[in-house]
Specification:
Layout: E1 9-14, E2 20-27, E3 34-37, E4 46-48, E5 53-55, H1 59-69, H2 78-92, E6 103-106, E7 112-116, E8 124-126, E9 132-134
């Protein structure tokens, strides 16, 4: 995870006039969303003093912080959020807010794995961030 005001990544491309264009991406310390850093863009973002990093300020990120902590002052990093999700799966056997009926378990190394589903598990996999995608 990138902390502070360091760039997460850089890009370099050529515009339609053949000029080289360079830029940087920043990453939210809470939700890991990335955005192109543009000085003076007018976008209001933020800085989390607890986790010492930039925050994206997107409504869904703020809403998730409020859901997890009861306010938007306390911060929950991705690692803490993953710990909360793992604890929820261990207690209930499914993902928070999931109404699909798919059962999950937490493996010994902390990964969340599907154990039963209405679909073939051979056709899907879970990314490191916990998103289920089709192979």
């Amino acid at each position: 995870m990138i902390h502070g005001e360091k760039e997460s990544s850089f890009y370099q491309t050529i515009d339609k006039n053949g000029r080289r264009v360079e830029g940087a991406f920043m990453q939210c310390v809470h939700c890991q969303r990335m955005w192109e850093y543009k000085t003076g863009s007018g976008r209001i973002r933020g800085y989390c003093y607890k986790h010492k990093g930039l925050i994206c300020g997107q409504p869904d990120c703020i809403a998730e912080q409020k859901r997890l902590t009861g306010n938007t002052v306390d911060c929950v990093t991705v690692e803490q959020q993953n710990d909360l999700i793992r604890a929820y799966v261990m207690r209930h056997g499914y993902l928070p807010g999931d109404k699909s009926g798919i059962k999950y378990e937490v493996t010994a190394d902390g990964k969340i794995r599907m154990v039963s589903a209405h679909l073939s598990l051979d056709n899907y996999l879970m990314t490191p961030s916990g998103i289920i995608i089709k192979k």
